[in-house]
Amino acid sequence: MKVAEITSLRAGRIGGYDEQGQTVGGDVPALHWIAAEVAYGETRCVLLDGDWYELGDEYIRHVQAVTERAFAHAPEWALPAWNDSSCEPSPNEDTYNRYVARMDPRFLLMDKNLVFTRAHRRGFEACDLLGPDNELVHVKRTSARTGSSPLSHLFAQGLVAAETLTDPRAWQDFTALVADRSPERAARLGHRPSAIVYAIHRSDRALTPDTLFTFARSALVSAWVTLTTYGIPVYVHVIP
Fold first, then answer.
1. What is the pTM of this model?
2. 104-120 burial, b if ≥16 CB within 10 A, otherwise e?
3. Domain extents in the chain
4. For the segment 65-87, what is each residue's pLDDT rounded down to a tens digit?
């Protein structure tokens, strides 16, 4: 790849939009959407989020251990089956999120409600659902057809949201947004996110640490390492 091409990929931005034309997580450098794994001499290297990493045995063991921990330490609640949310086949994320909030009042629908802060003047989505214990729940459906990119983006989105909300002023902005929907929930929010929960439904096979896409695992580990330094637990909840 030529220098000019790499520069263009770093400078260019890619944004994602849902079925209603609403932004999902803002835009990121184009290079961050490209993932690759190549042999380099006697080692293997992986391109993630614009940087190359060497896949040594120690790193692979670390990724596996963190991934298994994220799956094992689930929240104390469970979400309903994905296909229960609609009579139509393959309901989308908007339909599922609305169904959960409608069926279980412990969950507050926050999907597409943007938080505007000094660092995110265009707004960002703090979560799809606010959980029973004030967890930030990020919901995603995936399959072999979609590949790892949606999950890598999901893990990065949750990381950005939680990291931003550790700032007291940003948390005040989020609290005000929650208060617009439920003053009662806003009154017991606390001072920071209690946890990040990545709630994932894989439509083509069971989701386990072993069936999580390779590139998505690395993105999950990146989020887990950063957020646990803030004292914010990270969980993966499998939606049946």
1. 0.77
2. eeebbbbbebbbebeeb
3. 3-59, 64-238
4. 999 999 998 888 999 999 999 98
